[in-house]
């Protein structure tokens, strides 16, 4: 492949950026590390964009590794940049629309529900009285609930509601109530779920996360172990990734006491350090190959006579 420069967007470039830089370099591509917040719109430019370190051209592709927290206006501007890059023909991985479908947990839940992909029962609303009424009804039926921020990751800010007495202290971020059925572990006191990495329609790596606490995120101290996956698990992860229109994603699955699997979350900007440590699989290498294939496709469409 002719020389290609790949923009990696993140507000803090660490282990993942190093992994990607090395993997891209092995395929003859150059990684350029940028903070998406440093990009800007400037309609004096032919593209309408100013991308640092790309003064006279656009990236050959973009990898979105992180979008820093910010105001609604700041996040909107950053997504504007990603949308526009895609409209200009630059492969953006993952694209803005996939990120928008997954960063909002309610939107993900709706997509999974409408596609008939198993996921814990979910409610989302703005009205506190409605949320409390739902919670009381479910608690009376014997269901515990998990309350999560609409936007959030790594298990931060989530609460488990087991008793009506807890509802007086219920607090949420941004006056948005996102409630989900709590799934009891198969073995009491031993919590686990599964993270599957899907790249271009294939599960390339999987691990189980185990904890003595009901929050099983790697960032919260869970232990990670390489895992085989059943056909059912793989299909769930592949379908969930496809329904949010993501070329790749980290999909979290959980198993109930009847042995049924369901999708807990779809992450379109997934970290994979725990997965790499558990499996040894070169995930960055697979992502670099995905980037190369997208660039190759764009060049074949744009310059078919020059691509061999």
TrEMBL record:
Its cofactor is Mg(2+); Mn(2+). One of its GO terms (molecular function) is metal ion binding. The keyword Metal-binding applies. GO terms for cellular component: cytoplasm. Gene3D superfamilies: 3.40.50.20, ATP-grasp fold, B domain (3.30.470.20). Residues 109-292 form the ATP-grasp domain. It holds the Pfam family RimK. SUPFAM superfamilies: Glutathione synthetase ATP-binding domain-like. This is Alpha-aminoadipate--LysW ligase LysX. Its EC number is 6.3.2.-. Keywords: ATP-binding, Ligase, Magnesium, Manganese, Metal-binding, Nucleotide-binding. The keyword Transcription regulation does not apply. InterPro entries: ATP-grasp (IPR011761), ATP-grasp_RimK-type (IPR013651), Rimk_N (IPR041107), Rp_bS6_RimK/Lys_biosynth_LsyX (IPR004666). It is an enzyme of class 6 (ligase).
